[in-house]
Amino acid sequence: MTTVEERPHTGFGRTLRKEDVRLVRGKGNYVDDVRLPGMLHGALLRSPYAHAKINSIDTSAAEAHPKVLAVITGETLKGLGLAWMPTLSYDVQAVLATDKVRYQGQEVAFVIAEDHYSARDAVELIEVDYEPLPVVADAKKAMDADAPVIRDDKEGQTNNHIFDWESGDQAETDAVFANAEVVVAEDILYPRVHPAPLETCGSVADMDPVTGKLTLYTTSQAPHAHRTVYALVAGLPEHKIRVIAPDIGGGFGNKVGIYPGYVMSIVGSIVTGKPVKWVEDRAEHLMSTAFARDYHMRGEIAATKDGKILGLRVKVLADHGAFNATAQPTKFPAGFFHVFTGSYDLQAAHCTVTGVYTNKAPGGVAYACSFRITEAVYLVERMVDVLAYELKADPAELRMKNLIQPEQFPYTTKTGWEYDSGDYPKALQLAMDMAGYDELRKEQAEKRERGELMGIGVAFFTEAVGAGPRKHMDILGLGMADGAELRIHPTGKAVLRISVKTQGQGHETTFAQIVGNELGLPTADIDVVHGDTDQTPFGLGTYGSRSTPVSGAATALVARKIRDKARIVASAMLEVSPDDLEWEGNRWQVKGDPEQGKTIQEIAMAAHSSLELPEGVEGHLDATTVYNPPNLTYPFGAYICVVDVDKGTGGVKVRRFIAVDDCGVRINPMIVEGQVHGGLADGVGMALMQVIAFDEEGNHLGASFMDYLLPTSLECPSWELGETVTPSPHHPIGAKGVGESATVGSPCAVVNAVLDAIKPYGVRHADMPLTPAAVWGAMNGRPIRTDLAIP
Ligand code: MCN
Ligand code: CUN
User: Fold this and answer.
1) Over 80: is that where the pLDDT of 791 sits?
2) Ligand 1 test: best mutation among 23, 373, 548, most atoms within 8 Å of CB?
3) What band does 224 get if pLDDT is binned at 50, 70 and 90?
4) How far apart are CA 687 and CA 454, in angstroms?
5) What is the pLDDT of residue 219?
6) Which ligand has the shortest distance to the CA of 548?
7) Ligand 2 center from residue 273 Cα (angstroms)
8) Which one of 370, 373, 375, 548 would you pick to mutate in the ligand 2 pocket, going by the greatest count of ligand atoms within 8 A of its CB?
């Protein structure tokens, strides 16, 4: 059998994932695998109501359970000053509800028992006297005069308004609209969806009563940020808190925030003096952890009769649930939605976003969202198709006509974002060539003649990933920059320590490849350490596809520091001036005399030896760095989806999907393709199957995988991938992030394809998910509101 280690590999390119040696053999170590001596188990009581006053909580029967050690309520926490915790958005969230519950599934009490089952049993024994209150589950009704005020805990809060925010120039945009030949408008919903990683959230807290040191094993995409938040909340110094995020079974943004369950495992360990594990089940996960989207958008496009897009005007109503717990950079309450001008060269653009509270779970930035660019791309790509519909134009041609041109880069959008690099027409043309676009249109026309429904959906996207710069971007005051540390051992083996955290993206492989590319070390000789705050440098973690743009850059630069130091060591070894040396692959060699050189391994040994080094040069080969990105990176792509729709049932079959992605230089093309495959499947899921819907009482209607559907290979075609490579000019290795690209770009391609198929029925728009019922409803003049009840 060939193991990864037996395949020598250095630098960029396709290589098997180092982490799969353990992951595919079932040898991963996830939070629920953590078993500590004397460990106890916690379980949460959650509210069955979406909105209710809590009159009283009787825990006596639960406490009497023979295996129960403690039952903790919000009243207990109040005494500790811990009943409320800060969210990452300068709001507060109840750890355990005291006054009232504000969404179905909210945490009300925590039971600690000797085993998991007893904890669950005892949860059932808690008696809560709830007094149901009126519910607002529809964002459109949240600001009605008679809507119940959800956040009456907040002083001065007299309605459900959270924020108003705008971007772009309103007057300029209105002027463009006033003079435009064509104006089209559409109401577009991006419904609430859930990232649904296979591993739910959980933690094991171990507070050592002797040393006062807390070790927390937890499902966290951002261990350092979490540690600082715990330090602030608990008043503990950071060095007394160790956050370990072991293997993570998918994060997709869901594991960026801090959940009450994590805090309760910590409180539980403090109260009992024993380690306490809390791991939620699927229903709890789907009901109470970070969801995504829930954006009600109105888009308007101004254009000329022959299809030149001039302006874009957008109004958004953002449903944030009961607590504003989105994890987006502080200055951006609507995330990066203002990149809503997409891939088009416009004269003017303006948008407003209003955020409101509803009786739904908090969260909002998850599911490969790039801080709301998903919503923005969906909106603009849907709007371009709406315009194509009105102008009877070909959607690919219309896009081609309006794309930002290669010579316009770096391109500043009307909302002030600077796209670093791109060649958009080339990507779209490649996708069209791969698809055989003209033949597809011919086939569609023939099928329409026969009354068959075939659709071709086109979407183009620009992503914005790699937050910071820290000057503009922070989370709870923590600037978005990341550290890296690299140590080369005497034998030339290396340890790289990074601040980001893989959840399946393959960092243990790709980050080793970055070091290998810089130093010529075999990938197998480089160990990548991540996910442990005691072992890694500070940094903000993995989300917003920022690992490669930020931490990947830090990794390349820290390796270059080592290379520079290795040059001095080599010059001492070879007794020549450093200036006379040149780097070649894995060695410093004398210019003009390549026979004379020293490999990085030889240099590493010498750096640890008795070799005399020049004055002021320390021995050993270690370096650290902190990388503050000068700008985001802007990957992009062109997607084409082909569907067949069943006339009788509205059922959709995705027949083909062509995806051309440009993420700059690819470190590991196989991993990039894996990321794209996953994101495309996400897109099929969101477009056709997924919604977290609610009924009028705020009952959550998607709390299991029977209701909330995950796409499988049966729903997905065999993806057809293409690539163009436009390096990022400001990134040390020219790479851009890619982890969320396909999730951002694909839903609209699928939706545009379905709507293209049913165009003969006079349908211009219908909201996701395009379930058979939604498609059939649209075809038959009976559109449905997909977010309020599953039809
Ligand atoms: N990569 C590469 N060349 C590039 C860009 C990326 O080889 N030019 C590689 C990277 O080195 C890394 C992977 O592709 O191994 C993804 O890199 P990047 O785009 O930097 O994204 P992150 O590593 O920061 O991952 C975060 C991103 C996000 S925000 C979500 S959400 C998401 C996604 O990754 N969650 C995922 N992909 C996921 N994939 C898995 N399996 N599980 C998740 O939870
Ligand atoms: Cu928004 S989902 Mo990813 O950024 O972790």
Assistant:
1) no
2) 548
3) very high
4) 16
5) 98
6) 1
7) 35
8) 370
Asked whether the predicted pLDDT for residue 486 surpasses 60, the reply is: yes
Is the four-CA dihedral 227, 232, 234, 237 of positive or negative sign? positive
Question: So what's the pLDDT on residue 55?
Answer: 98
Q: Where in the chain is the domain with CATH 3.90.1170.50?
A: 34-133+198-250+255-288
pLDDT in tens, 406-450: 999 999 999 999 999 999 999 999 999 999 999 999 999 999 999
CATH 3.30.365.10 domain residues, the chain: 20-27+482-627, 295-385+394-467+631-779
CB of 555 within 6 A of ligand 1: the answer is no
The band of 467, judged by pLDDT with boundaries at 50, 70 and 90, is very high
Domain 20-27+482-627 fold: Aldehyde Oxidoreductase; domain 4 (3.30.365)
CATH topology (fold) of 34-133+198-250+255-288: Aldehyde Oxidoreductase; domain 3 (3.90.1170)
**Proximal ligand: closest to the CA of 546:** 1
- Say which DSSP state 735 is in: B
pLDDT of residue 6: 45
Torsion of CA 197, 322, 140, 154, to 10 degrees: -160
Of ligand 2's listed atoms, the one at least distance from the Cα of 546 is 4
Phi-psi map region of 335: left, alpha, beta (phi>0 left; psi -120 to 50 alpha): left
The reply to whether ligand 2 has any atom less than 6 angstroms from the CB of 366 is yes
Q: Which CATH class is domain 295-385+394-467+631-779?
A: alpha beta
CA distance to 490, 559, 614, 743, per residue, from 589 (Å): 20, 18, 18, 46
pTM value is 0.97
Q: Are 698 and 51 in contact, with CB atoms under 8 Å apart?
A: yes
